Amino acid sequence: MTYIEYNFSVFPPQPATDILIAELGEVGFESFVETDSGLLAYVLKSEWDETLLKDIYILQNPDIQISWTQKEIEQQNWNAEWEKNFHPINVGDRCVVRAPFHGKKEVEYDIVIEPKMSFGTGHHETTHMMLQHILDSDFNGKSVLDMGCGTGVLAILAEMRGAVKLDAIDIDEWCYLNSLENVERNHRNKIEVYQGDSSLLINKNYDIILANINRNILLEDIPVYTKCLNQGGILFLSGFYTQDLDIISSKCGEYGLKFAKKLEKNNWVSAKYVN
To answer: Using one digit for the tens of pLDDT, what is the confidence trace for 32-81?
Structure first.
């Protein structure tokens, strides 16, 4: 079998890249690798109709600059191409996020993720910073929500750090299924994975909430998160730019949450709020 690789250059990168991944997945693309300039996307040549690109809404958006090239990749080169573009991620000197084809690392937290079409490999700045927050915080004995879980990597590290009850939720079916696989792959037994949105949070309570989504969804769901957060709880948010921090913090403040800390990387922010 032969695959076609599309190399998309995307500006500004987010949330356009996430939207592009979702739309390409709907028309048959099987795997994605985020790059510094955008995205590599792979589709089986025998099942691909290039005219379907006309139905990709984000490609027609005048506010987003997206260009692309394409090339064919024979099956015997497929795994090599994937491995070449998916490198292990080091989070400090304590945690490594790697794919199954990478060798085991002698670190405190060795996480194996098969990302498929799901967001959250650790390559993206927001995921990386959320992993940093988890490493820097006390999760021992805590109940945790990983909202917009993608690959489930945040919930997996949270359990490794001592969390005892965890819910991982994503609206995307592929993310839901992929999180189930990754939870099993990392031998975690305290994580429940659900497909859905914040409507699933009725009558739920957590000590810590992790939400790495995007600005608009965060602003919409912060009131819901606040209702779910136990007294003295912590809310970690990411998926937005430096210039959005004030509006996110203002929304949190409306519901009694106090800004405590932020991490920044390449104009992306991950912030900590306390109840």
So the answer is: 888 888 999 888 888 899 999 988 999 999 989 999 999 987 655 555 55
Would you identify the CATH topology of the domain 2-85?
A: Alpha-Beta Plaits (3.30.70)
For residue 246, is it left (φ>0), alpha (ψ between -120 and 50) or beta?
A: alpha
CATH code of the region 124-274 = 3.40.50.150
Please measure the distance between the N-terminal and C-terminal CA atoms of the chain and give it in whole angstroms.
Answer: 54
Structural domain boundaries of the chain? 2-85, 124-274
Q: What is the pLDDT of residues 209-263, one digit of tens each?
A: 999 988 888 999 999 999 999 999 999 999 888 989 999 999 999 999 999 999 9
